[in-house]
Amino acid sequence: MQCFWIWCFLAFIMFPCLWSQPERSLYIETDAEMQQEMEYALAQEVQGQLSAAWTIYQRHWKKSKALVQPCLLSHTALQSLKTAIDQYKSNSTVTSPVVFPELILNPTMLAQVAALESKAGFGATAHYLNKALAPGLYISTPEYIRIRCGHWDKELSEYASLKREMDEQIQAAWNIGPQQLYRVILQYPLQLISVKLMIDLGDWYFEQGQLHRALGIWYRLKLWKQNLSTQDCLDVDIRIALASYLCGDFLVFQALRDQYQTALYKETWITYRNQKMRLSRFFQEIAKEKYSQTTQQWNCFGGNPSQSRLITGPDLVGKDFPCQAFRLSRHYDFHEIPRPLFGEKRIYTYSLSIKDHFIVATSIQNPDEPKTLWRFSFPLHIAMDMTDSSLYSPALWRDRLYVLFPPNTLGNQVFCLDTKETIANSQRVIWKWPTESEAQDIILHSAPLVLDGKVFLHLTLFNQQINSEIVCLNAQTGELIWRQFLSSIMPLEYKQATKLKYAPASTGLAAGYGLVYCCSNLGTIGAVDMETGEIRWISKYHELLPQQYRLQLGKTIPKCMHTPPIVKHGKLYVVAQDAKLLLVYHALTGAIQQIFPDSQHQGEFQELFGVSEDGKIFLCTQDEILALQPNAAQEILWCKGGFSGSIGHGMLTREWLYFAASGNLFQMSIENGKCSRIENPNLGVLSNTQGLLLISDISQDYLIRTGRQLYIHKITPPNK
C-alpha cells in the first residue's frame, strides 16, 4: 500500500512533464544583426549622442515591417538605470531607479546588471532588463524607432531634410484622403508631426462615424508624444472621453471624468459643439449623448457584431411567450451548425451534409411566412472530414456575403457571393481567394472580419513549419492588400502526424482602435495595423506562464466555435485555447494587465462570453460560469456550477447571460449569478448540449436557437 502511494506521488510530480510533451519552439521574425544595431543606438541615445542614434535608426526605419524587437523602456527609465549602474561602478550611493527599485533591494542583481553592462554594453543590458520586466512582448522595428524618437525635443540637423520630405508627402496625402495621410504619418517620427494634424485626422474619422479609428489616432498621439502641453493634452482627452462614451468604453470615460472633475480643473473652459462651457458641464453633456450601437460593428463575432456589443435582453423566465417556430433546415451531419447571420431582415445559414454544402438566404420580412430567397451550392472538389465541427458563419458587407468553404480544411477558400435575388446561381460568385494552386498548403480559419471595405482573414500555412498569418483583401475585388506573418511553430511532421485532422485554429479576429487582433492558439497574440499590416505588438503568452509552452501531437485542440478577442475599455480580453487562461492586455501597447487564474494548472476556461459595460468579465469552464470584477478586493464576483452537462455557447446582454446546457436554455443575472431555466413548452429541447441561444440583432422580438437544426421563435405579440 505504501508503495502504491509512492508511485502516486511520483506520477503527480511527473504528470506535467508527461502531459506537455513533446516540446516545440515558437518563432517570431527577428534579426540578430539589427538587434545589435538597436542596442548600440540605444546606448548612444542615453549618452546624449542623438545624431549618432538617429543615423542608425534612419538606416533601419523602413527595412522591414515584420521584424520585431523586445518591448522597450521609456527614456526616463533608461536614464535612471544608467545613473544607478554608474553610481554602483563608482562605489557611490545608489539612488533608487524609477522603475527598478528591485535593484536596490537586491544588491546581487545590481552587481549582475553592472557586470553585464561592462561586458555587453548598456544597450544590451537595457534590453535584457526590459525583457525580464515585460516577458513575451515584442513590437515591430518601425514602431520601436517611432517610440524611441518620440520624446526627442532637440533640433537635429538630420531632421531638416526629413521634415521637408514629410511635409511634401503630407500635403499630397491630404489631396488623396485621410487613409493616405495616415500611411504617411506611420513613415516618420511623430515628433516631426504637429499635434494639430493628428487631432484633425482623428476628427475626420470621428465625423465619419469611425470612432475607434479616431480613438486609435488620439491614443497613439498620447503614447508617442511625451511632452504634450497642458492644453494639447486636454484637447485630446476630451475627444477620447466623448468617443469612448459613444462606443461603450465607459471605464475609459469614467476615468477621464474623475481626472478632470477635480478642483484643479474647476475653472477650466472648453468649446464643445460651438459652445463655450466649463469642463465639468462638458462631462454632464456627454452623458446626454445617445449611446451608439452601430459604432460597435467594428468588432465582429462569427460574422455578427461582437458579444461586447450589449443589447437589452428580455426576461424570458416564466414567460409563456408564443413560439411561431419555423425550421430553416432539416438536417446537419456536422455536430452543430454555424451561428446564423442577420442582415436587412434576412437570415443567412450555412448548411452542410455529406452530399451537399450550401448557403441559404431566407427573408423574415413576414416572420409568419419565411421565404427562401436563394440557395447557393458549393462545388464539391475537396473531401471533408464530417467529424470536424469547426464551422464558421459568413460575414456580410453591403450586398456581399463572405464565407469560408470547406471549413477548417486544407485548400479551402473565402467566397464572395452576391446577395441580390436576381442573380443566377452560376453568377453568384464574385471572387474567391486564394486560387486553387495557392490554397494547397493553406487553411483559412474563423469567420471573415469585414470592415471599411476590407476582408481580414487568419490562415495557417504549412511550409516546412506551421506559420500563422493575417491577410487583408479588397472586399470588392478580392485583391490582396497585405499579408503579415505573425509566428511559426513545429516542424512539418505535425502536418504528417495528424493529417490535419486536429489543425490548430485561431479563436478568430477582432478589430478596434485601428488595429486587427488575432490569437493564434499556438502561443501568440498579435496586433497589426489594419491599413498597412505593420505589426504593432506580439505577445508570446507562454512566456508569461510558469510552464514552458508545448503542444501535444495527435491530441485534439479545442475547436474554435469560441469568442474572438474582445476589444473594450482600451483593453484586449482573450481566452487562448492552448492555455485556457484569461489574458487581459492593454489594447494599444500589448502590456499585460491581468492573468487569471494565477496558476496555469487551474486554467480550464472553455469560452469568454463577454465583457459588460462596467468591466465585469464572464467566462465558463466545462461546468461552471464565473463573473470576474478586475481591480476589486474580491476578484471573483460569483461562480455558479452544478450543471449536469457541458455548458454551450451564450449571449451576454446588459442584464442577463443566456446559455445552453444539458439540452436546456438558461437565463442568469449578471449581477448575482441567479440562474433560472427557461421553461416554455413551445421551445422543446435542444438537440445537443452545444446549442446556441441568441437574441436577434434585427429585433428583440425573436429568439434563435441552434443545434443540428435552427429555429426562430416569436417571443412577443406582433402588436406589442
Compact description:
With 720 residues, the protein is of the alpha+beta class. The protein has 16 helices and 39 strands. The strands form ten sheets. Strands 2-3-24-23-22-21 form a six-stranded antiparallel sheet. A five-stranded antiparallel sheet has the order 1-20-19-18-17.
Question: Explain this structure to me?
Answer:
It is a single chain. With 720 residues, the protein is α+β, with helices and mostly antiparallel strands. It is built from 16 helices and 39 strands. The chain has a 6-stranded antiparallel beta sheet. A 5-stranded antiparallel beta sheet has the order 1-20-19-18-17. A hairpin with a 2-residue loop joins strand 25 (566-568) and strand 26. Helix 3 runs antiparallel to helix 8 and helix 9 packs antiparallel against helix 10 (178-185).
- The separation of the N and C termini measures 71 Å
Mean pLDDT: 77
| Percentage beta strand | 25-35%
* Tally of helical segments: 16
In helices, the fraction of residues equals 25-40%
Structural class: alpha+beta
Can you list the strand order of the major beta sheet?
A: 2-3-24-23-22-21
* Shape verdict: globular
Major β-sheet, in short?
Answer: 6 strands, antiparallel
- Unreliable residue runs: 4-22, 293-308, 330-335, 552-560, 687-693, 695-699
Give the beta-strand count.
Answer: 39
Question: Radius of gyration over alpha carbons?
Answer: 27 Å
